[in-house]
Amino acid sequence: MAVHVVDHPLVRHKLGIMRKHNISTKDFRELASELARLLTYEATKDLETEKRTIQGWSGPVEVERIKGKKITVVPILRAGLGMMDGVLDLIPGAKVSVVGLYRNEETLEPVRYYVKLANKMDERIALILDPMLATGGTLVLTVDLLKEAGCTNIRGIFLVAAPEGIRRLEEAHPDVDIYVAAVDEKLNDIGYILPGLGDAGDKIFG
Ligand code: PRP
Fold it and tell me: Is the CB of 196 under 6 A from ligand 1?
């Protein structure tokens, strides 16, 4: 498993603004989408391309296009929806697979309430979207669901990840790579990432 921290001035700048305690819903939402776009650029860097010849303005020209597996983006409700538009800006043809999970506030374990995956999951690359990887319970269950549906190429995009969640993913699904804007310090007693972003769902939905 690899953790790709996308180390870029624009990413650090935008994430820094998102950490401000009184950031507006509008700004938080816009930045979540912008960061998702930048992380997607990195998360899709290894996609294979194939060559084909088209008719260009000066005659036949060889161009490249993405080859093979099609992509499905997998926003985890609710907060993952705040990243979806940014990702679809770059991959407009992607199918959307929706996974509805919330964390039980006492046990911190994920509770499933809605799952609707795209068809032919065995033929797709899944890009999971969620602003937060905290204990990792939500991500591990999401990967379980995707694998049950036959998906074999799964990667995740998060704005902020905690070391605890990374360890849990590594134990359960070492084949899944993640792309993050930052790995933060730790979780607090109630499972929030420190320094983190606070409750991303509430900040995006108000
Ligand atoms: C948050 C976050 C992740 C999950 C991470 O969602 O968006 O989905 O918690 O926690 P974990 O790694 O410990 O499982 P939340 O349960 O607050 O739901 P929401 O997006 O609907 O607000």
Answer: no
